[in-house]
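Appendix B. One record, verbatim.
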Amino acid sequence: MRLALKLERRKGVDPTQGRDPKLMYGSQSATKKVTVPELRARKSTLLGSPELAPKIAMVTAYDYTMARLADEAGMDMVLVGDSLAMVVQGLNTTIPVTLDEMAYHCRVVARGLTRAHLVGDLSFMSYQVSSAQAVESAGKLMKDGAESIKLEGGQEIAEHAYRIVRVGIPVVGHIGLTPQSVHAFGGFKVQGRGEGADKIMADAIALEQAGAFAIVLEAIPPDLAADITSMLTVPTIGIGAGAHCDGQVLVCSDLLGLSRGHQPKFAKRFANLGDAAVNAFSAYVQEVRAGTFPAAAHAYKANAQSAAAQSERRPPISASGDELDAPLALDRWH
């Protein structure tokens, strides 16, 4: 599609005439899968118009139900992030989650998607050792349902990213605040200030040259993110990186207001489902204890004969209780 649009421009033809952007890039009701070439074509500077290149909406999901809901909402990309270590497993960092656990969650999320593109996250130390290890780990997630993989780091892992791309596996990069390096950063802190900005710029270039089709920019100053976005020919997806990226990603529990405790500054709550869930659980507890649930409306239809009618058909027991008025079935065989 990119090539066709460019050719039309060279011929002096308006490529937008008679075309509905929703048809070009999919709509909420579409069932056509979002593909890597389509996502690359969503780079705003390639088409020169936000209407032609609507920004990419991405969210995390870790189970079938959440994936299905995100897909139904028209999400472009769904990320099975290693953030599941903190969101699902209750850990303090993303470091402990394993590749096998990531593969399991990729499998269940994949079953819930009919349109959104599925990205699988490579867990800590599943790709850093060597390019061969990185390719093998990426292949595992692809076999378990991922349609591309994401890995953290810049220049230091660019060779690994290049090797993964070379075997036909699409790669999403991730630079800025990379949570797997939280201890090296001294905590979850904004990156890219001062001399750090030059390193992140160099990381972005290295990943693009390695063949990444998109790059996540996390927790960096918005002006730096804007500079990187305008410099690259592949889409940038921001999380705490301002509004000038080509797309945005949020953790589903933050977006839905399910998280308790600290909320990152960039994580806007689009709902407060956590409070709604607590209220629903509380109402359930009260009704169970009061005996008002289940009501008749929540019970299946009773048998045609009542328990009393069934008891009338049972053979009576003698007054002494020692003998039965009716012979035992066993007596028929003697």
